[in-house]
Design goal:
Elements: H1 2-10, H2 18-27, E1 56-65, E2 71-79, E3 85-91, H3 97-112, E4 121-126, H4 129-132, H5 134-142, E5 145-150, H6 159-173, H7 181-197
Parallel strand pairs: 1-4, 4-5
Antiparallel strand pairs: 1-2, 2-3
Length: 202
């Protein structure tokens, strides 16, 4: 800005303020456009279909609020083709990078009975710091997972996870006891088993 105004003064012109300079640069296509993190403004005209099982898993977190004010934090991974729960974990503390990496390993072990996927599996999650950290991404790739990220506000790509979260809240949490965290944690295993026996298809 200072250099521009100095050059203008040397030529006998008046100074520009920031808005005038910005408008002039915009009219002459001299501005750099930053990529936006917002989801594209368009309608989806169909469904995102996964061609088979164990090709794309979606991971998400939800908070279960108890009647006494305690919160149980649940993390789960679900197959977008079969809608089967791959794995889940729960507790009263927040999720960390270490616990996420342990969870990834747990899901692979449960599904494939080995420490690495036999083929590439997409791991879809939101763009939260824990999911996108270098350590987590590198660890996931080392396990055979392909990390994919959706914006925190974007539910279109994570419809299966959103649907499961609603089912867990309505059909289980609100229907059964949620007096406190101990009560909820004691029932979670049976809730996940109940959902697994009758997975909802989108």
């Amino acid at each position: 800005m200072l250099i521009v105004n100095r050059l203008r003064r040397d030529k006998g012109r008046s100074n520009l303020n920031r808005k005038s300079l910005h408008r002039s640069m915009s009219q002459n296509n001299l501005l750099l456009h930053c990529p936006s993190d917002k989801a594209p403004d368009h309608r989806h005209e169909g469904k995102i279909i996964t061609p088979g099982p164990n090709l794309r898993w979606v991971s998400d977190n939800l908070e279960l609020r108890c009647e006494n004010g305690e919160i149980v934090r649940v993390t789960f991974a679900i197959d977008t083709y079969s809608h089967e729960i791959i794995g889940w974990t729960a507790g009263k503390v927040g999720f960390t990078g270490d616990s996420l990496r342990d969870f990834m390993r747990l899901c692979i072990k449960r599904r494939f009975r080995q420490h690495r996927t036999p083929h590439a599996v997409e791991w879809l999650s939101d763009k939260g710091r824990v999911n996108t950290s270098y350590e987590t991404v590198a660890f996931a790739i080392g396990l055979g997972l392909l990390p994919r990220f959706a914006a925190l506000s974007c539910t279109a790509s994570k419809g299966v996870a959103e649907s499961f979260a609603r089912t867990l809240l309505v059909d289980y949490l609100y229907a059964y006891g949620r007096r406190d965290a101990v009560t909820v944690l004691a029932q979670l295993d049976s809730w996940f088993e109940g959902y697994g026996a009758h997975p909802r298809r989108a």
